[in-house]
Structure to design on (367 residues):
């Protein structure tokens, strides 16, 4: 047997193994995280976006079906649900902050969350996107595990929702400071809250790195707007469907 | 540790069951999140040592799990390879929605919050 056919046989064996894709996913993430850290946490090099690109490129180059990949990667995917439940902890740990500014927090989560929905919907309709894409985009400002859950429930495409959610976080983290400086918003709580509500975890990480108070409010905004949006979007759909 | 994992899994399961039974449109794990948050807040002033250890182990287990949160999006995110066609025709417009939507939401939210916050601090 020649060297190359032997190599090919090993490859055929490996790519049928779920463990191979599980290992590749973790490896790609570790590599991406290393690149991100060595470039001073530059927002465009977000490790999630990078690792998705690395793994997708492998699948396309080696012509591997997504189902085969997911057979291994599902063991990681499985933890997304429990991680969503665990998001209660950062809200709980910051509960005294919520109590201190409860009026501002409650009203801004409700009105700001609704504003985000309307902005996404309005812009998407204006640009003539189709209904599936609109449903996919709608929950983009909340943390990815919740956004994907909402997308699935209302009939969007969860994997695309993951991507647009990550892009939302990256853009918010990259442009937020500049935008809020331009507006001369000096209240650190308000700045943090805007980061958390408009660009979830990636924005929150950015706010935390710059100012502690802003970081805490960002974390609260991210958590609460995730819950509120998960209730609000399906409710809006129910109302629309009820009226039509 | 194991009890914390058990509670988190059980709450997700319970959330999913509630979603099925009442045909709710809220994702099951989010219902689990709400239940966990509510029970933590309701038992906050309970200083029973058993509650105390349970809370501590829930916090540390969750923080471990959330430390890897980014990794958990990768498998579903890779699913984008199945939707390249959809992206091809609409990518630019999708990007525009995200860009304008994110900036306008940030402007509105920071303005709205700072107004209310100022008033609340004066009360």
């Amino acid at each position: 047997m020649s060297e190359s056919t032997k190599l090919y046989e090993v490859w055929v064996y490996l790519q049928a193994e779920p463990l191979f894709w599980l290992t590749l996913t973790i490896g790609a993430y570790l590599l991406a995280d290393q690149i991100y850290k060595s470039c001073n946490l530059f927002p465009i090099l977000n490790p999630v976006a990078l690792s998705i690109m690395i793994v997708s490129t492998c699948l396309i180059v080696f012509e591997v079906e997504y189902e085969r990949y997911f057979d291994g990667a599902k063991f990681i995917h499985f933890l997304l649900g429990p991680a969503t439940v665990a998001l209660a902890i950062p809200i709980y740990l910051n509960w005294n902050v919520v109590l201190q500014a409860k009026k501002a927090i409650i009203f801004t989560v409700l009105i700001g969350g609704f504003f985000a929905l309307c902005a996404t919907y309005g812009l998407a309709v204006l640009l003539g996107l189709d209904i599936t894409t609109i449903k996919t985009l709608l929950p983009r400002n909340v943390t990815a595990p919740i956004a994907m859950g909402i997308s699935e429930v209302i009939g969007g495409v969860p994997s695309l929702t993951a991507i647009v959610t990550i892009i939302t976080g990256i853009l918010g983290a990259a442009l937020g400071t500049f935008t809020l400086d331009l507006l001369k918003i000096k209240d650190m709580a308000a700045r943090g809250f805007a980061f958390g509500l408009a660009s979830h975890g990636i924005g929150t990480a950015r706010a935390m790195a710059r100012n502690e108070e802003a970081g805490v409010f960002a974390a609260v905004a991210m958590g609460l707007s995730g819950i509120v949006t998960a209730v609000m979007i399906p409710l809006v759909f129910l109302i629309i469907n009820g009226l039509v | 540790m194991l009890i914390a994992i058990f509670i988190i899994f059980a709450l997700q399961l319970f959330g999913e069951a509630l979603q099925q039974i009442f045909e709710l449109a809220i994702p099951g794990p989010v219902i689990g999140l709400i239940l966990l948050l509510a029970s933590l807040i309701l038992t906050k002033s309970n200083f029973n040592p058993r509650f105390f250890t349970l809370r501590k182990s829930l916090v540390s287990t969750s923080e471990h799990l959330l430390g890897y949160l980014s990794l958990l999006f990768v498998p579903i995110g890779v699913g984008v390879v199945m939707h390249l066609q959809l992206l091809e025709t609409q990518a630019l417009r999708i990007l525009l929605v995200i860009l304008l939507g994110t900036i306008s939401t940030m402007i509105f939210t920071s303005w709205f919050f700072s107004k209310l916050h100022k008033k609340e601090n004066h009360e």
